[in-house]
Design goal:
It contains 8 helices and 10 strands. The chain is an alpha/beta fold. The strands form 2 sheets. A 6-stranded mixed sheet has the order 6-7-8-3-9-10, with helices on both faces.
């Protein structure tokens, strides 16, 4: 595993804002994503996590601020082949089989037939779909489609993997298996960014950024955040940091001149 304390960050955000018209949804976020570990973005739905990862992969452009990904200013077109992205919605062809979907998306990354022949069984095994490669996606359950979407993101062995709520709709057994797979990917040299609103998943991250109302409200390892929040678990710590973020500063008391 890469020593994250000394290595250059793979992703950097500096004073990043995102607005839709007059509605600002991301408010001046700064963050670094070190290589060789799992960085988690934890926060409620609708508070900016998806917007952040879409800006990192280049699907959205920041209104202001700077984003660099693998050394390139976003949108990172030159290094796109080194990035794997799994969105919340499954972008799959339901009339094709799992294997045909993987062949199609792998070809978009320029993988040869030989490379695909080697990669497809491997990624299907990673997501526990090795017995379903010949089935059409239309016959898949929602959880199976999520796992196939992850396989698509993995097909070209990306250096940086960005996963937006990857375990939505999965049963507990497959959630555990995917997190084991995530650890295996990191051991093989990949870097992962994962968004989640599930506390036990957030606790599995190496580095955790708490997002609330489009703002970064806390940053550290899960254990550090529990300690900083003065709480006994991660959920209580998140609620404490959120409450602090929602509390307006006390007004400055003005001195009344002419009185003792």
């Amino acid at each position: 595993m890469v020593d994250a304390s000394t290595a250059e960050p793979l992703v950097q955000l500096r004073d990043v804002h995102k607005s839709y018209g007059s509605n600002e949804v991301i408010h001046g976020i700064d963050l670094d994503v070190p290589p060789g570990q799992i960085t988690g973005l934890l926060g409620p739905s609708g508070h900016g996590k998806t917007t952040l990862v879409h800006m990192i992969v280049g699907a959205l452009v920041a209104t202001s601020g700077m984003i660099t990904v693998l050394g390139e200013t976003a949108p990172p077109r030159k290094v796109k082949a080194q990035i794997g992205f799994m969105p919340q919605s499954d972008a799959l062809y339901e009339d094709l089989t799992a294997t045909q979907n993987l062949r199609f998306f792998g070809s978009l990354y320029g993988l040869s037939k030989r490379a695909l022949d080697e990669a497809i069984p491997k990624v299907l095994a990673t997501v526990s779909l090795e017995e379903t490669g010949r089935k059409t996606v239309a016959a898949f359950s929602g959880g199976m489609k999520r796992r196939l979407s992850l396989a698509v993101a993995l097909i070209h062995s990306p250096r940086l993997l960005v996963l937006d709520e990857p375990t939505i709709g999965l049963d507990p057994v497959h959630r555990v298996r995917l997190w084991e797979a995530f650890r295996g990917l990191v051991a093989d040299g990949a870097t992962l960014i994962i968004t989640t609103h599930v506390m036990d998943e957030a606790a599995n991250c190496d580095d955790l950024l708490m997002i609330h109302d489009g703002r970064l409200i806390a940053h550290g390892s899960p254990a550090e955040l529990v300690s900083l929040g003065g709480k006994s678990n991660l959920e209580e710590a998140f609620l404490e940091f959120s409450a602090q973020a929602d509390t307006p500063p006390e007004p400055v008391k003005k001195r009344r001149f002419g009185h003792a």
